[in-house]
């Protein structure tokens, strides 16, 4: 039993986080079951919908998005959270931190760069595709040497 105030607080915080993590883990397991059931039923549309369905409810999404917007612009009116608005706020919040490109590639969004020279080995990179081999990094040779079962990603030697 903890006697120090900070130790008591740490126990409470740990219990709270454990309960939250248990709920999140349960939600993830349920979502996985829904996706697997849709795949087993050969229902591509239901599987994609289950994959894209947010785990949080719309009210929570609205609350968090509006809090972020109002922190920057206190007079801003409330908005309804959509995937596009969340991505836009994420882009603005994390500007110059290097997350945007990976978000675009992960979500399969098409990018069109404007101005400048975007060439690599005479290849036009104005509109990079998430399917381009350069969006997946090469596996280090030291890892391949240690595990002979690993094969290098396509496009790399």
How would you describe this structure to a colleague?
Helix 1 (5-40) packs antiparallel against helix 2. The protein is 54% helix and 3% strand. The chain is built from six helices and two strands; from the N terminus they run H-H-H-H-H-E-E-H. The protein is extended, with a radius of gyration of 22 Å. The protein has helices at residues 5-40, 44-52, 58-72, 83-93, 100-107, 141-146, and strands at residues 119-120, 123-124. A two-stranded antiparallel ribbon has the order 1-2. By secondary structure, it is mostly helical. Strand 1 (119-120) and strand 2 form a beta hairpin.
Termini Cα gap: 58 Å
In DSSP terms (H or I, runs of 4 or more residues), the helix count works out at 6
Strand order of the largest sheet: 1-2
Helix content: 40-55%
User: Helix- and strand-based class?
Assistant: mainly alpha
Strand content: under 5%
Over the alpha carbons, how many angstroms does the gyration radius reach?
22 Å
Q: What characteristic shape results from the CA principal axes?
A: extended
Largest sheet: 2 strands, antiparallel
Tell me the number of strands.
2
What's the SSE pattern?
Answer: HHHHHEEH
Mean of residue pLDDT? Answer: 83
Low-confidence stretches: none
Short description:
The protein has helices spanning 5-40, 44-52, 58-72, 83-93, 100-107, 141-146; strands at 119-120, 123-124. The chain is mainly α and 157 residues long.
Please describe the structure with a list of short key phrases separated by commas or semicolons.
single chain, extended, two-stranded antiparallel ribbon, 3% strand, 157 residues, mainly alpha
